[in-house]
Structures are given as structure tokens and as C-alpha cells.
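Quick one before lunch.
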Amino acid sequence: MRAWPILLGILVGLIALLYGRELGVDDIDGWRRATRYTARAGLVLFLITYSASSLARLTHGRLVLMVLRDRRWWGLGYAACMMVHAYAFLSLFDTGTAQLPLVVAVGGGAGYALIATMALTSNRRAMRRLGPAWRHLHRVGIHGLWLIYTVIFAARVIRPGSFIIGLYGLALTLGALALRMAARRRPQLPADIA
Ligand code: HEM
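Model of the protoporphyrin IX containing FE complex:
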């Protein structure tokens, strides 16, 4: 069953949510942690999808080629995990104690619009219908999400109290970008794989 990364996305998201709830000192802290941890779980799945083709070009490893072949399912697994993030932040706002800054609403909303567009067009029918536009759409989508993560973690670097997590996050997103740039110098993969 090639769709198993979707189950993985839900599972990883739920574990992150429960872990955050467990560590929270009270209900609000629990939902805040659940929101952060589900976002971090989503980041791991995002980076796997974002880096699959670069790693395949650089290493030709069997595992990476398998992920690349099933990249669509990994992307859907990421989308599933981000549904759990949405459940966590909606529950946090439901406590009535957390504010939703305009920049988070706009940036985060744009992120979910990208995730939904890519998830809905991750099938052969949409690929056929959209033709070359499909590749452009998914390229814009994945780089748009990369930008959202990078901005979030850059903001955390300068925000008091979240320097370390910001630094880790930035190292991951910039590292993934460096990987993509390094892979561009390598020969293209055969069309049936890439
Ligand atoms: C309207 C949509 C969204 C809302 C309302 C939202 C809300 C939140 C909230 C309340 C937090 C916790 C902030 C804190 O107290 O530290 C958070 C964290 C986070 N969110 Fe979202 N989010 C949205 C969409 C997204 C999207 C689309 C992404 C990724 C593409 C994302 C990635 C993150 C990350 C990386 C964190 C920080 C985790 C950490 O501290 O390590 N969010 N979000």
C-alpha cells in the first residue's frame, strides 16, 4: 500500500499533539505546546518531500529513490499532519486566551491555501489537465511553504526566549535549500523517476 505515508502523517501529528498536551502545565500551555509540536512534526515531513529529489540526485540511495517515487504520498502525509496542526491551533484559540496576529492569519492562511492546492492536484488526472502548469504550480507551492517556515524561524531567532528553536529551524530550512542548490549541478534523473 503506497499511501501509507498519509497514515504516518496522521500518526506523527497525533503523537506530537498528545505529547504537547501531556507536557503542558495547564490546558492553555498544553494546546500551545501541541500547536508547536505538531508544526515541528509537519516540518520533518515537509523536509523529506522538499529534499527527496535533491538527495536522489546526490546519492542515488535506494531509500531516497523509494521516497522520491512516492513523493506524492509523502506530500499528502505532510498535508495530513498539518491538519492536526490546524486542530491544535483552533483548540488553542478556542480557550479564548490566545490572540491571532494578522501576520499569522495571512501567512498561515496562504500556507494552508498552498497545501490544499497541492494536495488536491496530487493526482494523475490533475497532472494531465494542467500540463506544464502542474510543475510550475507545485514548484511555487513547495518554495512558498519553504519561505513560510524560514520566515517563522527567522522571526523566532530575534524573539526573546525562542533563539535556539529558531536557530535549529533555520539550519534545517537553509540546509535543505543548500542541498537543492548542490543537486542542481548533478545530472537530471530519468523522467520516470523525477
Ligand atoms: C492560519 C493558519 C495558521 C495558524 C492560525 C497558525 C497558528 C500557530 C500558532 C498559534 C503557533 C504557536 C505560536 C507560539 O506560541 O509559539 C504556531 C506555530 C507554528 N506554526 Fe502555525 N499556524 C498556521 C499555519 C501554519 C503553516 C501553514 C505552517 C507551515 C507552513 C505553520 C508552521 C508553524 C511553525 C513552524 C510553528 C512554530 C513551531 C515552533 O515553535 O517550533 N503554521 N502556528
